[in-house]
Write a structure and sequence with these properties.
The protein is mainly α. The protein folds into 2 domains: about 80 residues, no CATH class; about 80 residues, no CATH class. About 50% of the residues lie in helices and about 0% in strands. The protein has 8 helices and 2 strands; from the N terminus they run αααααββααα. The chain has a two-stranded antiparallel sheet. The protein starts with about 25 loop residues before the first helix and ends with a helix. Bound molecules: zinc ion. Zinc ion (ZN) binds next to loops.
């Protein structure tokens, strides 16, 4: 039966078999390395790496800097813990959690339900900028882009002498009038900047 001794904070985590002394850091490193090699683990298998991974994981979960410092034995207000909290403690937490293999699922704060068209009442998928039924713009930015594009096309049309080029401009203009919903905001931005150059 093991002899129980009162725990002291300076007690070694792993001790030698025949004396109450801690083993060397190198010995601990070798223990992890051998276990990692046997398990065919490709990532670094060192106490230092485990501490880093653990700190970033806890920070990503919103654990406070003080708790992270206590947990890892860092002194209060340490630069190391502050860095993990700063890097992983806010917007990155979902990505980091996912990187640790945690299923973060869909972001529930992001609304996904369709939006009813203000003109005809059709349910419009949230990512669409225009109602597929009546072409009502569902987005102020898309409306502004469409207006800019049609006025740029009109300006080009006025100056264009070549019949073939005029035909192309007219067809583009008609396309924007009749099927604005076929264009994404990104495409309209792109087109607008290419026409303005
Ligand atoms: Zn509509």
């Amino acid at each position: 039966m093991a002899r129980r001794t009162p725990r002291r904070s300076e007690d070694p985590f792993i001790s030698k078999l025949n004396s109450p002394e801690g083993v060397s850091n190198n010995y601990v490193r070798d223990l992890f390395k051998e276990a990692g090699d046997r398990a065919d683990v490709r990532k670094p298998v060192t106490p230092r790496y485990f501490r880093k991974a653990s700190a970033s994981h806890l920070a990503s979960k919103g654990v406070s800097q003080a708790h992270i410092e206590d947990h890892h034995g860092w002194t209060r207000g340490s630069d190391i813990a502050a860095r993990y909290v700063a890097v992983f403690g806010d917007a990155n937490d979902r990505e980091i959690a996912a990187a640790h293999g945690i299923d973060v699922g869909e972001d529930e704060s992001e609304p996904t339900a369709p939006v009813p068209c203000p003109r005809c009442g059709t349910d419009v998928p949230r990512h669409k900028d225009f109602c597929p039924d009546c072409k009502q713009s569902m987005d102020t930015e898309a409306t502004a882009l469409l207006e800019s594009l049609t006025s740029v096309l009109d300006g080009l049309l006025e100056e264009e002498d070549d019949a073939e080029a005029r035909g192309k401009l007219i067809r583009a203009r008609q396309k924007f009038d009749s099927r604005p919903d076929e264009f994404s905001k990104a495409e309209m931005h792109q087109l607008l900047s290419s026409l303005n150059n």
